[in-house]
Structures are given as C-alpha cells and as structure tokens.
Design brief:
This protein is mainly alpha-helical. It has one domain. Helix content is about 80%, strand content about 0%. It is globular, with a radius of gyration of 18 Å.
Length: about 270
C-alpha cells in the first residue's frame, strides 16, 4: 500500500465512520471502483483506532467525566457523579451485544467483505433504517429528557442495532442513531449516545486485532499506516462536527437517499 492510497482510504474511513453511510462498505467499494488495493484487516483496524482519537477529542468533556466517575469520583458533584455513572453503565450494557457478535460471528461476516453484492444489499438496508427513523419522527412518543432519560433496555436495544453493523455495508452510526430515534430520542441525542457507544466498540476491535497490526507494521507498512491514521482522525473529527450540527435541524433523508443509490449501484455492478 502506497502513502497516497493510505491517505485516500484514511479520509474515506474517517468521513464515513461517523456519517451514517457505512465505513466498512466504502472501504470495500472505493478500492473496487478506483482500482486501489483492498486494505488489509490491520489497516482497517488501525484507521479505526484513529477515528477513536477523533471521537474522544470531540467528546473530550464527556469522556473525561466518564473517567473521573471511576478513578476520581470526589472531583464530581453528587448529581453529576450520579448522571455519569448511569451513562457509563448504559455504555457497558450497550456494548455487550457487539462484543458477543464480534466474538461469535466475526469469521462469517469477514467472508462477506469479499462480496460486493452483500455490501450493496446491506447499504440498502442502511437506507431503509434511516427512512424508518425519519418516518418514526412524530409517530413515536417523544422523550425530551435527553440521555438523562435513558434506561437499561434502551441501551440494550441500541447495542443490538450496533451489533448488526458487523455486516459490511450496514452503517454502525446509522443503525444506532435510527434505534435511538425509534425509542423516542431526538436525532442529536441519539447521535450523541451512538458516538459515545462507538468508543468501546472501536477500542475492542483494535485490541482484538493487535496481532494483525503488529505483523503489518513489521512488513514495512508503517509510514502508510500512520498517514492513513492521521487522515482518518482529521476527517473523522470533521464528520462528527458536521453531523452533530446537521442533525439538530435536518432529518436523515439525505443519507437515506445516498445509501439507497450507492447500494443499488453496487448491487447492479455485482450482477453484471
């Protein structure tokens, strides 16, 4: 992998990791369409770690409170401590389904990454979830208390939607944001919890694949991987910045249309 190829794929990864359009799907489609080498699993996980840096940087205040409520609880007020301990508990609950799916189904879904047809179909499914979330707005009971009103069943349901995103082409952020909207949360709150929930998911995937990264770095891909990681971190931060502001005023329709068109295009190509 050249540095230019790593730069392109890093930007694609960072931009699509947090926008509800599927990073895994685009990391399959882009190399296929533009003649780039398919990124190895190690590169995929390495740039995912860079997107972890992006989400931690953007939500630095939240992450610092989550850490303090464990290591230095006295530095937080009573109500603040209670709130962040509850959010931490829901993040743990929401992370369980993805951990189980990754452990039990990883090999099966890894094989699907070689199928552009599967990627296209899962992109269409992402579109349907986003359309469904838009349809649900105004039709489900509205919850106005933000993440403070979240309960364990809510976190578990969102976590189950996150687990589905192990499939290539099924957007993690799209699935979890849609789940939050189905539960009655506004789009911005759903996205906020989705991004916080991505932290343990990305970190877990990185730890699970450390052996692959070590082998790739030893093979002389270090410079390209670092360039790709930097590109992913910067584009990921900008994607979060954009989406959090976009969702305060706009629906998910734009992303639903995009994933539908791209999904149908990929399905069509795979059948030719």
């Amino acid at each position: 992998m050249t540095i230019l190829e790593a730069l392109i794929l890093g930007v694609v990864q960072g931009a699509t990791e947090f926008l509800p359009i599927s990073s895994s799907g685009h990391l399959v489609i882009v190399p296929e369409l533009f003649g780039l080498p398919s990124p190895p699993l190690a590169f995929d996980v390495f740039v995912h770690l860079a997107t972890l840096v992006a989400v931690v940087a953007y939500f630095y205040r939240d992450v610092s409170r989550l850490v303090l409520c464990v290591v230095a609880p006295r530095r937080l007020g009573r109500q603040e401590l209670k709130y962040w301990r509850r959010i931490l508990a829901w993040l743990v609950v929401g992370s369980v389904p993805a951990a189980l799916a990754g452990f039990l189904l990883n090999d099966f879904f890894e094989e699907l990454f070689a199928s552009t047809l599967a990627v296209g179909l899962f992109l269409v499914l992402t579109s349907l979830l986003l359309w469904g979330a838009d349809f649900a707005l105004g039709r489900v009971a509205r919850r106005t208390d933000g993440m403070d009103g979240m309960r364990a069943p809510d976190a578990l349901i969102v976590g189950c939607f996150q687990a589905l995103a192990i499939a290539p082409g099924l957007s993690r952020s799209g699935s979890t944001i849609a789940a939050g909207v189905f539960l009655g949360f506004d789009r911005a709150t759903a996205a906020h919890f989705s991004f916080l929930l991505s932290i343990p998911a990305i970190l877990g995937a990185f730890v699970f694949s450390l052996k692959d990264i070590g082998g790739a770095m030893a093979g002389g891909s270090g410079a390209a991987y670092l360039v790709g990681a930097l590109a992913a971190a910067v584009s990921g931060f900008l994607a979060i910045f954009f989406l959090m502001r976009y969702l305060k005023r706009h629906r998910l329709r734009l992303f639903a249309i995009y994933t539908l068109l791209v999904g149908l295009f990929v399905v069509g190509l795979s059948l030719l």
